[in-house]
């Protein structure tokens, strides 16, 4: 896991969910901040929790208790409620487990995004190489069938089947142009 479990849990796990799990009943939040009784009021507040001093902020996924004078994120709130403040890493992993988050999820999402590239137009790439040949050699129409040009062209077309990504294209086209230029140069030299 590249980032700490605590940082990920604070992002992925909703503060409202943590409130629910530690027994804090929230009214219908619907995005706005709500004021409720602090789960630690009985113990920590001077008024033993009589006043609703605990405010939940869904937009920043956090909570703040005016009586405790403490700001809570999902992990620190759960850690304190479960009396596991010394094991925030473990608490974070438990929270992530509850929401069904697997450590590999982010990596998988990224892979899916990066493989969803637009289809490579191989016909257009093949044509680009033909056009390049015509431009470099005035006798392209006939030399493209002569050695070593035809072999180079054949290899390039074989390689084209392996072109899958944008990076492949950026590698394939310049390399093939260069190989073709050399092959054509060989022919001009001998002719
Ligand atoms: Zn409090």
Quickly give the structural class: alpha+beta
| Overall strand count | 4
Strand order in the sheet with the most strands: 1-2-3-4
Instruction: Classify the helix fraction into a percent range.
Output: 40-55%
Order of helices and strands: HHEHEEEHHHHHHH
What sort of overall outline do the alpha carbons produce when their principal axes are compared? rod-shaped
Largest sheet: 4 strands, antiparallel
Separation of termini?
Answer: 62 Å
Average the pLDDT over all residues and give the rounded result.
Answer: 85
Q: What are the bound molecules? A: zinc ion
Stretches where pLDDT falls below 50 for ≥5 residues? none
Radius of gyration: 32 Å
Beta-strand portion reads: 5-15%
Number of helices: 10
Quickly list its features.
55% helix; alpha+beta; binds zinc ion; 4 strands; rod-shaped; 191 residues; four-stranded antiparallel sheet
Report on this structure.
The chain is of the alpha+beta class. The chain is 55% helix and 7% strand. It contains ten helices and four strands. It has a four-stranded antiparallel beta sheet. A hairpin with a 4-residue loop joins strand 3 (62-65) and strand 4. The longest helix is centred in the last third of the chain and has 25 residues, at 166-190. The two termini are 62 Å apart. Bound molecules: zinc ion.
